[in-house]
Design goal:
The protein has about 130 residues and is of the alpha+beta class. The protein is built from four helices and three strands; from the N terminus they run αβββααα. The model has no long low-confidence stretch (mean pLDDT about 85).
């Protein structure tokens, strides 16, 4: 469980109250949780998934992939049957699921991930 509040005394009170009823351990300030890096700022908390992105790229052998300015091609339309070779749908679904989780901190990829999710039953190399 993650408890966050700008008032440290309130957080301490909640932890003590919960500790009276449940077995718990105060892990201190939050730095990393479920693939999300957390950094406190004056405006609140900054959430990042930089390590998650690096790990994902490494697992897919895409560490040296070329950067793009848009997350989805603006010149190529996506169709269910586009004439290219079918790819492993299980691996495609795994990648799409990882990208959906990444959209937690990168909402700019949400449209592209949603569009690619429409082809999960029969993905091709274009997708």
């Amino acid at each position: 469980m993650v408890i966050t509040e700008s008032d440290n005394q309130f957080v301490s009170h909640v932890v003590i109250t919960l500790g009276a009823h449940f077995s718990l351990k105060d892990m201190g300030s939050l730095h990393y949780f479920l693939g999300v890096e957390v950094s406190p700022t004056t405006a609140g908390l900054f959430l990042s998934q930089h390590k998650y992105v690096c790990d994902t790229l490494e697992s897919k052998n895409m560490v040296g992939a070329k950067d793009v300015s848009t997350p989805l091609s603006t010149t190529q339309s996506l169709h269910l049957l586009d004439g290219t070779t079918l790819v492993d749908s299980t691996e495609y679904r795994r990648i799409i699921g990882g990208l959906q989780y990444l959209s937690l901190t990168r909402p700019d990829i949400s449209f592209a991930v949603n569009k690619l999710s429409q082809f999960m039953h029969k993905p091709t190399t274009t997708h």
